[in-house]
Amino acid sequence: MQVFFAIWFGQLMSLIGSSLTGFALGVWVYQRTGSVTQLALISVSTVLPKILISPFAGAFVDRWNRRQAMLFGDTGAGLVTLAIAILFFVGKLEIWQIYLGTAVSSICSSFQWPAYLAATTQLVPKQHLSRASGLIHLSESIAQLTSPILAGVLVTTIQIQGVFLLDFITFLFALITLLFIKFPEHRTKADNQEKSSLLREILQGWTYIKTRPGLLGLTLLVAATNSLGGIVEVLATPLILSFASPAALGTVLSIGGSGMLVGTLLMSTWGGSQHLMRNVFCFLLLSGLSILSVGLKADTSLVALSAFLFFLSLPITNTSIDVIFQKKVVPDIQGRVFALMGMITESCIPVSYLLAGPLADRVFEPLLAPNGALAGNIGQLIGIGKGRGIALMFIIIGALTMAIAIIAYQYPRLRLVEKELPDAIADPATKNHHESFSE
User: Which residue ranges does UniProt annotate as crossing the membrane (predicted)?
Assistant: First the structure.
Protein backbone atom coordinates (compact mmCIF):
# COMPACT_ATOMS: atom_id res chain seq x y z
CA MET A 1 0.00 0.00 0.00
CA GLN A 2 2.93 2.39 0.62
CA VAL A 3 4.20 1.93 -2.93
CA PHE A 4 0.69 2.33 -4.32
CA PHE A 5 0.12 5.45 -2.22
CA ALA A 6 3.24 7.10 -3.67
CA ILE A 7 2.02 6.40 -7.22
CA TRP A 8 -1.50 7.53 -6.30
CA PHE A 9 -0.21 10.85 -4.95
CA GLY A 10 1.72 11.53 -8.16
CA GLN A 11 -1.36 10.75 -10.26
CA LEU A 12 -3.49 12.93 -7.98
CA MET A 13 -1.20 15.92 -8.60
CA SER A 14 -1.33 15.28 -12.34
CA LEU A 15 -5.13 14.97 -12.31
CA ILE A 16 -5.54 18.26 -10.44
CA GLY A 17 -3.22 19.98 -12.92
CA SER A 18 -5.14 18.59 -15.89
CA SER A 19 -8.45 19.66 -14.34
CA LEU A 20 -7.11 23.18 -13.82
CA THR A 21 -6.08 23.41 -17.47
CA GLY A 22 -9.39 21.97 -18.65
CA PHE A 23 -11.33 24.54 -16.65
CA ALA A 24 -9.12 27.42 -17.80
CA LEU A 25 -9.34 26.38 -21.46
CA GLY A 26 -13.12 26.09 -21.20
CA VAL A 27 -13.34 29.64 -19.85
CA TRP A 28 -10.98 30.88 -22.57
CA VAL A 29 -12.98 29.22 -25.36
CA TYR A 30 -16.31 30.52 -24.07
CA GLN A 31 -15.00 34.07 -23.52
CA ARG A 32 -13.51 34.10 -27.01
CA THR A 33 -16.48 32.60 -28.89
CA GLY A 34 -19.52 33.10 -26.65
CA SER A 35 -20.74 29.76 -27.98
CA VAL A 36 -22.05 26.98 -25.76
CA THR A 37 -21.74 24.62 -28.73
CA GLN A 38 -18.02 25.37 -29.07
CA LEU A 39 -17.65 24.72 -25.36
CA ALA A 40 -19.58 21.44 -25.61
CA LEU A 41 -17.32 20.26 -28.44
CA ILE A 42 -14.45 20.12 -25.94
CA SER A 43 -16.40 17.43 -24.04
CA VAL A 44 -17.07 15.56 -27.27
CA SER A 45 -13.38 15.65 -28.24
CA THR A 46 -12.59 14.29 -24.78
CA VAL A 47 -15.02 11.36 -24.85
CA LEU A 48 -15.07 10.07 -28.43
CA PRO A 49 -11.34 9.40 -29.05
CA LYS A 50 -11.09 7.46 -25.79
CA ILE A 51 -14.06 5.30 -26.75
CA LEU A 52 -12.64 4.55 -30.20
CA ILE A 53 -9.04 3.85 -29.19
CA SER A 54 -9.63 2.00 -25.88
CA PRO A 55 -9.68 -1.59 -27.28
CA PHE A 56 -6.32 -1.07 -29.02
CA ALA A 57 -4.86 0.75 -26.02
CA GLY A 58 -5.86 -2.11 -23.73
CA ALA A 59 -4.09 -4.65 -25.94
CA PHE A 60 -0.90 -2.60 -25.88
CA VAL A 61 -1.14 -2.20 -22.10
CA ASP A 62 -1.09 -6.00 -21.77
CA ARG A 63 1.96 -6.21 -24.06
CA TRP A 64 3.90 -3.52 -22.23
CA ASN A 65 5.15 -3.11 -18.70
CA ARG A 66 2.42 -1.38 -16.69
CA ARG A 67 4.74 1.43 -15.72
CA GLN A 68 5.75 1.97 -19.35
CA ALA A 69 2.09 2.32 -20.33
CA MET A 70 1.47 4.85 -17.54
CA LEU A 71 4.62 6.76 -18.52
CA PHE A 72 3.42 6.84 -22.14
CA GLY A 73 0.02 8.22 -21.11
CA ASP A 74 1.38 10.84 -18.72
CA THR A 75 4.17 11.93 -21.09
CA GLY A 76 1.80 12.32 -24.02
CA ALA A 77 -0.67 14.39 -22.01
CA GLY A 78 2.17 16.53 -20.63
CA LEU A 79 3.52 17.24 -24.11
CA VAL A 80 0.05 18.27 -25.27
CA THR A 81 -0.19 20.76 -22.41
CA LEU A 82 3.27 22.09 -23.28
CA ALA A 83 2.31 22.49 -26.96
CA ILE A 84 -0.90 24.37 -26.12
CA ALA A 85 1.01 26.60 -23.70
CA ILE A 86 3.62 27.46 -26.35
CA LEU A 87 0.93 28.27 -28.91
CA PHE A 88 -0.79 30.49 -26.35
CA PHE A 89 2.43 32.32 -25.45
CA VAL A 90 3.21 33.13 -29.10
CA GLY A 91 -0.39 34.18 -29.78
CA LYS A 92 -1.10 31.40 -32.27
CA LEU A 93 -3.60 29.31 -30.28
CA GLU A 94 -6.78 28.51 -32.21
CA ILE A 95 -9.97 26.75 -31.16
CA TRP A 96 -9.39 23.77 -33.45
CA GLN A 97 -5.97 23.23 -31.85
CA ILE A 98 -7.64 22.91 -28.45
CA TYR A 99 -9.99 20.26 -29.86
CA LEU A 100 -7.04 18.41 -31.37
CA GLY A 101 -5.00 18.65 -28.17
CA THR A 102 -7.95 17.46 -26.08
CA ALA A 103 -8.42 14.50 -28.42
CA VAL A 104 -4.73 13.54 -28.16
CA SER A 105 -4.88 13.80 -24.35
CA SER A 106 -7.96 11.57 -24.43
CA ILE A 107 -6.04 8.97 -26.44
CA CYS A 108 -3.19 9.10 -23.92
CA SER A 109 -5.70 8.64 -21.11
CA SER A 110 -7.01 5.50 -22.83
CA PHE A 111 -3.56 3.97 -22.23
CA GLN A 112 -2.97 5.40 -18.77
CA TRP A 113 -6.28 4.43 -17.10
CA PRO A 114 -6.34 0.64 -17.76
CA ALA A 115 -2.62 0.48 -16.96
CA TYR A 116 -3.30 2.26 -13.66
CA LEU A 117 -6.03 -0.23 -12.69
CA ALA A 118 -3.95 -3.24 -13.78
CA ALA A 119 -0.88 -1.96 -11.91
CA THR A 120 -3.02 -1.60 -8.78
CA THR A 121 -3.83 -5.30 -8.97
CA GLN A 122 -0.08 -6.06 -9.09
CA LEU A 123 0.87 -3.76 -6.25
CA VAL A 124 -1.92 -4.13 -3.70
CA PRO A 125 -2.93 -7.24 -1.71
CA LYS A 126 -6.42 -8.51 -2.50
CA GLN A 127 -7.81 -7.55 0.88
CA HIS A 128 -6.84 -3.90 0.26
CA LEU A 129 -8.11 -3.54 -3.32
CA SER A 130 -11.30 -1.83 -2.16
CA ARG A 131 -9.28 0.78 -0.29
CA ALA A 132 -6.91 1.28 -3.22
CA SER A 133 -9.78 1.69 -5.67
CA GLY A 134 -11.43 4.03 -3.20
CA LEU A 135 -8.29 6.16 -3.21
CA ILE A 136 -8.34 6.30 -7.01
CA HIS A 137 -11.91 7.59 -6.96
CA LEU A 138 -10.99 9.90 -4.08
CA SER A 139 -8.45 11.61 -6.35
CA GLU A 140 -11.25 12.27 -8.86
CA SER A 141 -13.40 13.74 -6.09
CA ILE A 142 -10.60 15.99 -4.87
CA ALA A 143 -9.95 17.23 -8.42
CA GLN A 144 -13.67 17.83 -8.99
CA LEU A 145 -14.02 19.79 -5.75
CA THR A 146 -10.83 21.85 -5.83
CA SER A 147 -10.11 22.50 -9.50
CA PRO A 148 -12.95 24.95 -10.31
CA ILE A 149 -12.20 27.00 -7.19
CA LEU A 150 -8.43 26.95 -7.68
CA ALA A 151 -8.66 27.62 -11.39
CA GLY A 152 -10.96 30.58 -10.84
CA VAL A 153 -8.45 32.12 -8.42
CA LEU A 154 -5.37 31.23 -10.48
CA VAL A 155 -6.73 32.55 -13.78
CA THR A 156 -7.20 35.95 -12.17
CA THR A 157 -3.83 35.96 -10.35
CA ILE A 158 -1.23 34.10 -12.41
CA GLN A 159 -3.43 34.09 -15.56
CA ILE A 160 -3.95 31.19 -17.94
CA GLN A 161 -0.26 30.88 -18.83
CA GLY A 162 0.51 30.33 -15.16
CA VAL A 163 -2.10 27.58 -15.05
CA PHE A 164 -0.39 25.91 -18.03
CA LEU A 165 2.96 26.05 -16.24
CA LEU A 166 1.48 24.64 -13.04
CA ASP A 167 -0.14 21.79 -14.99
CA PHE A 168 3.17 20.93 -16.68
CA ILE A 169 4.90 20.86 -13.27
CA THR A 170 2.31 18.38 -11.98
CA PHE A 171 2.94 16.16 -15.02
CA LEU A 172 6.67 16.21 -14.25
CA PHE A 173 5.93 15.27 -10.64
CA ALA A 174 3.84 12.28 -11.76
CA LEU A 175 6.55 11.18 -14.21
CA ILE A 176 9.29 11.40 -11.58
CA THR A 177 7.14 9.36 -9.20
CA LEU A 178 6.71 6.62 -11.82
CA LEU A 179 10.39 6.63 -12.75
CA PHE A 180 11.73 6.19 -9.23
CA ILE A 181 9.25 3.66 -7.83
CA LYS A 182 9.77 -0.02 -8.53
CA PHE A 183 6.95 -2.01 -10.10
CA PRO A 184 6.61 -5.79 -9.98
CA GLU A 185 7.66 -7.10 -13.38
CA HIS A 186 4.71 -7.90 -15.60
CA ARG A 187 5.07 -11.20 -17.42
CA THR A 188 2.54 -12.56 -19.86
CA LYS A 189 2.12 -16.13 -21.01
CA ALA A 190 3.28 -15.06 -24.43
CA ASP A 191 6.60 -13.63 -23.28
CA ASN A 192 8.49 -16.55 -24.75
CA GLN A 193 6.12 -17.14 -27.63
CA GLU A 194 5.32 -15.34 -30.83
CA LYS A 195 2.80 -12.61 -30.10
CA SER A 196 -0.59 -12.93 -31.76
CA SER A 197 -2.10 -10.16 -33.84
CA LEU A 198 -3.40 -7.06 -32.13
CA LEU A 199 -6.96 -7.75 -33.30
CA ARG A 200 -6.82 -11.29 -31.92
CA GLU A 201 -5.64 -9.97 -28.55
CA ILE A 202 -8.52 -7.49 -28.48
CA LEU A 203 -10.96 -10.31 -29.27
CA GLN A 204 -9.45 -12.34 -26.43
CA GLY A 205 -10.42 -9.57 -24.03
CA TRP A 206 -13.99 -9.53 -25.37
CA THR A 207 -14.17 -13.33 -25.25
CA TYR A 208 -13.07 -13.28 -21.62
CA ILE A 209 -15.98 -11.02 -20.71
CA LYS A 210 -18.52 -12.73 -22.99
CA THR A 211 -17.84 -16.24 -21.68
CA ARG A 212 -18.33 -15.13 -18.07
CA PRO A 213 -22.02 -14.16 -17.81
CA GLY A 214 -21.54 -12.46 -14.46
CA LEU A 215 -18.91 -10.05 -15.82
CA LEU A 216 -20.90 -9.47 -19.01
CA GLY A 217 -24.02 -8.75 -16.96
CA LEU A 218 -22.09 -6.31 -14.78
CA THR A 219 -20.74 -4.51 -17.84
CA LEU A 220 -24.22 -4.16 -19.34
CA LEU A 221 -25.59 -2.99 -15.99
CA VAL A 222 -23.02 -0.19 -15.89
CA ALA A 223 -23.73 0.74 -19.52
CA ALA A 224 -27.48 0.97 -18.86
CA THR A 225 -27.12 3.16 -15.77
CA ASN A 226 -24.48 5.34 -17.49
CA SER A 227 -26.87 6.06 -20.35
CA LEU A 228 -29.45 7.33 -17.87
CA GLY A 229 -26.82 9.20 -15.87
CA GLY A 230 -25.69 11.07 -18.99
CA ILE A 231 -29.16 12.60 -19.35
CA VAL A 232 -29.15 13.60 -15.68
CA GLU A 233 -25.74 15.21 -16.06
CA VAL A 234 -26.90 17.41 -18.94
CA LEU A 235 -30.26 18.43 -17.45
CA ALA A 236 -29.35 18.98 -13.79
CA THR A 237 -28.22 22.58 -14.32
CA PRO A 238 -31.29 23.78 -16.29
CA LEU A 239 -33.62 22.01 -13.84
CA ILE A 240 -32.12 23.71 -10.78
CA LEU A 241 -31.90 27.11 -12.51
CA SER A 242 -35.61 26.87 -13.36
CA PHE A 243 -36.47 27.60 -9.71
CA ALA A 244 -33.20 28.67 -8.03
CA SER A 245 -30.41 31.21 -8.49
CA PRO A 246 -26.94 30.49 -9.90
CA ALA A 247 -25.58 30.87 -6.38
CA ALA A 248 -27.96 28.16 -5.18
CA LEU A 249 -26.83 25.97 -8.08
CA GLY A 250 -23.23 26.38 -6.96
CA THR A 251 -24.20 25.46 -3.41
CA VAL A 252 -26.02 22.32 -4.57
CA LEU A 253 -23.04 21.25 -6.70
CA SER A 254 -20.68 21.81 -3.79
CA ILE A 255 -22.88 19.73 -1.49
CA GLY A 256 -22.95 17.01 -4.16
CA GLY A 257 -19.18 17.13 -4.40
CA SER A 258 -18.90 16.77 -0.63
CA GLY A 259 -21.08 13.64 -0.89
CA MET A 260 -18.66 12.16 -3.40
CA LEU A 261 -15.77 13.02 -1.11
CA VAL A 262 -17.47 11.26 1.82
CA GLY A 263 -18.17 8.20 -0.34
CA THR A 264 -14.59 7.92 -1.53
CA LEU A 265 -13.25 8.41 1.99
CA LEU A 266 -15.52 5.63 3.21
CA MET A 267 -14.24 3.24 0.55
CA SER A 268 -10.58 4.21 0.99
CA THR A 269 -10.70 3.71 4.78
CA TRP A 270 -13.51 1.26 5.53
CA GLY A 271 -13.37 -0.59 2.19
CA GLY A 272 -17.12 -1.21 2.02
CA SER A 273 -19.03 -4.42 2.55
CA GLN A 274 -17.19 -7.64 1.79
CA HIS A 275 -20.11 -8.48 -0.50
CA LEU A 276 -19.31 -6.10 -3.35
CA MET A 277 -22.39 -6.88 -5.42
CA ARG A 278 -24.49 -5.99 -2.39
CA ASN A 279 -22.82 -2.56 -2.50
CA VAL A 280 -23.65 -2.25 -6.20
CA PHE A 281 -27.33 -3.15 -5.90
CA CYS A 282 -28.01 -1.16 -2.71
CA PHE A 283 -26.31 2.03 -3.85
CA LEU A 284 -27.82 1.84 -7.34
CA LEU A 285 -31.21 1.84 -5.61
CA LEU A 286 -30.11 4.85 -3.57
CA SER A 287 -28.92 6.61 -6.74
CA GLY A 288 -32.26 6.01 -8.44
CA LEU A 289 -34.21 7.20 -5.41
CA SER A 290 -32.07 10.35 -5.24
CA ILE A 291 -32.67 11.16 -8.92
CA LEU A 292 -36.41 10.53 -8.56
CA SER A 293 -36.73 12.76 -5.50
CA VAL A 294 -35.17 15.72 -7.33
CA GLY A 295 -38.19 15.84 -9.64
CA LEU A 296 -40.86 15.69 -6.95
CA LYS A 297 -40.69 19.28 -5.78
CA ALA A 298 -38.96 22.52 -6.74
CA ASP A 299 -37.13 22.80 -3.44
CA THR A 300 -33.44 23.64 -3.09
CA SER A 301 -33.03 21.77 0.21
CA LEU A 302 -34.53 18.59 -1.24
CA VAL A 303 -32.30 18.83 -4.31
CA ALA A 304 -29.20 19.43 -2.16
CA LEU A 305 -29.94 16.36 0.00
CA SER A 306 -30.60 14.27 -3.11
CA ALA A 307 -27.36 15.48 -4.71
CA PHE A 308 -25.41 14.55 -1.58
CA LEU A 309 -26.86 11.02 -1.51
CA PHE A 310 -26.46 10.55 -5.27
CA PHE A 311 -22.80 11.53 -5.29
CA LEU A 312 -22.19 9.57 -2.08
CA SER A 313 -23.37 6.43 -3.85
CA LEU A 314 -21.28 6.89 -7.02
CA PRO A 315 -17.79 6.10 -5.67
CA ILE A 316 -19.06 3.19 -3.56
CA THR A 317 -20.76 1.63 -6.60
CA ASN A 318 -17.86 2.31 -8.97
CA THR A 319 -15.20 1.13 -6.56
CA SER A 320 -17.06 -2.12 -5.92
CA ILE A 321 -17.34 -2.76 -9.66
CA ASP A 322 -13.64 -2.00 -10.22
CA VAL A 323 -12.58 -4.41 -7.48
CA ILE A 324 -14.77 -7.22 -8.82
CA PHE A 325 -13.07 -6.93 -12.20
CA GLN A 326 -9.62 -6.63 -10.62
CA LYS A 327 -10.19 -9.84 -8.66
CA LYS A 328 -11.91 -11.88 -11.36
CA VAL A 329 -9.82 -11.01 -14.44
CA VAL A 330 -6.51 -12.74 -15.13
CA PRO A 331 -3.69 -10.15 -14.84
CA ASP A 332 -2.34 -11.04 -18.30
CA ILE A 333 -5.39 -9.53 -20.01
CA GLN A 334 -6.59 -6.95 -17.49
CA GLY A 335 -5.55 -4.08 -19.73
CA ARG A 336 -7.72 -5.34 -22.58
CA VAL A 337 -10.68 -6.17 -20.35
CA PHE A 338 -10.62 -2.84 -18.49
CA ALA A 339 -10.31 -0.92 -21.76
CA LEU A 340 -13.14 -2.84 -23.42
CA MET A 341 -15.35 -2.41 -20.40
CA GLY A 342 -14.65 1.32 -20.47
CA MET A 343 -15.49 1.50 -24.17
CA ILE A 344 -18.77 -0.39 -23.75
CA THR A 345 -19.93 1.49 -20.66
CA GLU A 346 -18.98 4.95 -21.97
CA SER A 347 -20.08 4.58 -25.60
CA CYS A 348 -23.69 5.33 -24.69
CA ILE A 349 -22.88 8.60 -22.91
CA PRO A 350 -22.47 10.79 -26.04
CA VAL A 351 -25.85 9.48 -27.26
CA SER A 352 -27.40 10.53 -23.94
CA TYR A 353 -25.83 13.98 -24.30
CA LEU A 354 -27.39 14.34 -27.75
CA LEU A 355 -30.84 13.06 -26.72
CA ALA A 356 -31.24 14.99 -23.48
CA GLY A 357 -31.83 18.44 -24.97
CA PRO A 358 -34.37 17.49 -27.66
CA LEU A 359 -36.30 15.23 -25.27
CA ALA A 360 -36.55 18.03 -22.73
CA ASP A 361 -37.31 20.90 -25.13
CA ARG A 362 -39.61 19.15 -27.60
CA VAL A 363 -41.34 16.44 -25.56
CA PHE A 364 -41.39 16.78 -21.78
CA GLU A 365 -41.35 20.56 -21.26
CA PRO A 366 -44.42 21.06 -23.54
CA LEU A 367 -46.26 18.28 -21.68
CA LEU A 368 -46.07 20.23 -18.41
CA ALA A 369 -46.46 23.72 -19.81
CA PRO A 370 -49.47 25.62 -18.33
CA ASN A 371 -51.71 24.23 -21.10
CA GLY A 372 -49.78 21.00 -21.65
CA ALA A 373 -51.26 17.55 -22.00
CA LEU A 374 -50.18 16.49 -18.50
CA ALA A 375 -50.77 19.80 -16.72
CA GLY A 376 -54.13 18.70 -15.34
CA ASN A 377 -52.97 15.44 -13.77
CA ILE A 378 -49.24 14.94 -13.19
CA GLY A 379 -48.84 18.71 -13.17
CA GLN A 380 -51.06 18.89 -10.10
CA LEU A 381 -48.54 16.72 -8.24
CA ILE A 382 -45.14 18.08 -9.36
CA GLY A 383 -46.09 21.50 -10.70
CA ILE A 384 -46.30 23.11 -14.12
CA GLY A 385 -44.23 25.64 -15.99
CA LYS A 386 -40.56 25.99 -16.82
CA GLY A 387 -38.41 23.08 -15.69
CA ARG A 388 -41.23 20.78 -14.59
CA GLY A 389 -40.98 18.70 -17.77
CA ILE A 390 -37.34 18.09 -16.92
CA ALA A 391 -38.47 17.23 -13.39
CA LEU A 392 -40.74 14.54 -14.85
CA MET A 393 -37.75 13.18 -16.78
CA PHE A 394 -35.82 12.93 -13.49
CA ILE A 395 -38.69 11.00 -11.91
CA ILE A 396 -38.79 8.58 -14.85
CA ILE A 397 -34.99 8.17 -14.94
CA GLY A 398 -34.84 7.58 -11.19
CA ALA A 399 -37.58 4.95 -11.41
CA LEU A 400 -35.82 3.28 -14.36
CA THR A 401 -32.53 3.19 -12.46
CA MET A 402 -34.17 1.43 -9.52
CA ALA A 403 -36.02 -0.93 -11.88
CA ILE A 404 -32.75 -1.83 -13.63
CA ALA A 405 -31.12 -2.61 -10.27
CA ILE A 406 -34.05 -4.80 -9.21
CA ILE A 407 -34.17 -6.64 -12.55
CA ALA A 408 -30.40 -7.15 -12.51
CA TYR A 409 -30.64 -8.61 -9.01
CA GLN A 410 -32.93 -11.33 -10.37
CA TYR A 411 -30.14 -12.61 -12.65
CA PRO A 412 -28.27 -15.19 -10.54
CA ARG A 413 -25.06 -15.13 -12.62
CA LEU A 414 -24.70 -11.44 -11.80
CA ARG A 415 -25.94 -11.58 -8.23
CA LEU A 416 -23.60 -14.49 -7.39
CA VAL A 417 -20.63 -13.48 -9.56
CA GLU A 418 -18.34 -13.15 -6.53
CA LYS A 419 -19.09 -16.72 -5.39
CA GLU A 420 -19.39 -18.49 -8.73
CA LEU A 421 -16.39 -16.94 -10.46
CA PRO A 422 -13.10 -17.75 -8.70
CA ASP A 423 -10.54 -15.05 -8.05
CA ALA A 424 -8.01 -14.86 -10.88
CA ILE A 425 -5.27 -13.06 -8.96
CA ALA A 426 -2.95 -14.16 -6.20
CA ASP A 427 -2.33 -12.05 -3.16
CA PRO A 428 0.99 -10.19 -3.69
CA ALA A 429 1.83 -10.89 -0.05
CA THR A 430 1.85 -14.62 -0.73
CA LYS A 431 3.97 -14.51 -3.86
CA ASN A 432 7.52 -15.75 -3.98
CA HIS A 433 9.69 -13.16 -2.28
CA HIS A 434 12.34 -13.71 -4.92
CA GLU A 435 10.12 -12.26 -7.66
CA SER A 436 12.19 -9.90 -9.77
CA PHE A 437 11.34 -6.23 -9.94
CA SER A 438 11.79 -3.89 -12.87
CA GLU A 439 14.19 -1.06 -12.38
Answer: 12-30, 36-57, 69-90, 164-181, 215-241, 247-267, 279-296, 302-325, 337-356, 390-409
pLDDT in tens, 79-111: 998 898 898 888 888 889 998 998 999 899 888
pLDDT of residue 417: 94
Q: Using the predicted structure, report yes or no on whether residue 66 has a pLDDT greater than 90.
A: no
Q: Are residues 3 and 102 in the same domain?
A: yes
Domain, as residue range, for 214: 206-424
Q: Are 425 and 326 in contact (CB under 8 A)?
A: yes
Helix 129-157 and helix 246-269, axial crossing angle in degrees, nearest 10: 150
Backbone angles phi, psi at 81, to 5 degrees: -60, -45
Contact 429, 125 (CB under 8 A): yes
Is the pLDDT at 436 greater than 80? The verdict is no
Q: What's the rounded Cα separation, in Å, for the pair 387 and 298?
A: 9
In sequence order, the 6+-apart residues with CB closer than 8 A to the CB of 117 are 136, 322, 325, 326, 334, 338
Assigned domain for 197 exists: no
Rounded CA-CA distance 103/53 in Å is: 11
Q: Is residue 438 part of a domain?
A: no
Q: What is the pTM of this model?
A: 0.75
Residues 6+ positions from 265 with CB-CB distance below 8 Å: 134, 138
Neighbours of 136 (CB within 10 A): 24
DSSP secondary structure, 300-343, as one string: HHHHHHHHHHHHHHHHHHHHHHHHHHHHHS-GGGHHHHHHHHHH
Tally of structural domains, the chain: 2
